[in-house]
Amino acid sequence: MRSFLEPRWPDVHKGNSIEVPTGMPPSYEMCRLSTAFLKAVLEQELPEVEWQCVGGSPELDEDVNPEAGRNGGYRSRIGLWHAHYWVTDGDYSIIADVTSDQFGGDPVTVKLDDGPTEYRENYFEGAVETHMRDAEWRAAAWMQEWVVDHALGWSSAEPAHKPA
């Protein structure tokens, strides 16, 4: 997944006038777009799971649910919270992230959400949906490229039994 995304991120940076600071990984400011793309790949390859984009922020603004609290997003190893997006399953038991290295985390994270974690959702669901709309068109275009060369084929397997 990262080997597919990394060559595409510089064009997004350039097109959005994002200057990547020296020493920052190429995933800098790419979580929203990469999360939309990751969700599309997971929906194709594992359609029986209800994948969703979630996110959070340490700032209390109109997108943050005040009942969820201020500290949301991704907590770095030094304890700082950063606005961030990632993918989770419908039961919130799996976390998948391909850009946490911009905060000192791993480049790719797939983990069970089985206790305290560096991820904390606090955006309203509607806010995430609105934020993702801006990224979905590019994620859809990337998905067309991905399917040609990278489709795993899990979703195309014949069912064990055919419905009557």
Structure description:
The protein is built from 4 helices and 7 strands, in the order H-H-H-E-E-E-E-E-E-E-H. By secondary structure, it is of the alpha+beta class. It has a domain at 30-136. The strands form 2 sheets. Strands 1-4-5-6 form a 4-stranded antiparallel beta sheet. The chain has a 3-stranded antiparallel beta sheet with strand order 3-2-7, with no helix packed on it. The termini are far apart.
Topology record:
Blueprint: H1 2-5, H2 9-15, H3 31-45, E1 52-56, E2 73-75, E3 81-82, E4 84-88, E5 94-97, E6 109-112, E7 119-120, H4 125-150
Antiparallel strand pairs: 1-4, 2-3, 2-7, 4-5, 5-6
Structural class: alpha+beta
Strand order of the main beta sheet, please? 1-4-5-6
Radius of gyration (CA) equals 16 Å
H/E topology pattern: HHHEEEEEEEH
Strand content: 15-25%
Number of helices: 4
Number of strands: 7
- Low-pLDDT runs of 5+ residues are 155-164
Can you tag this structure with a few keywords?
single chain; 164 residues; alpha+beta; four-stranded antiparallel β-sheet; three-stranded antiparallel β-sheet; 32% helix; globular
Would you summarize the structure shown here?
The chain is an alpha+beta fold.
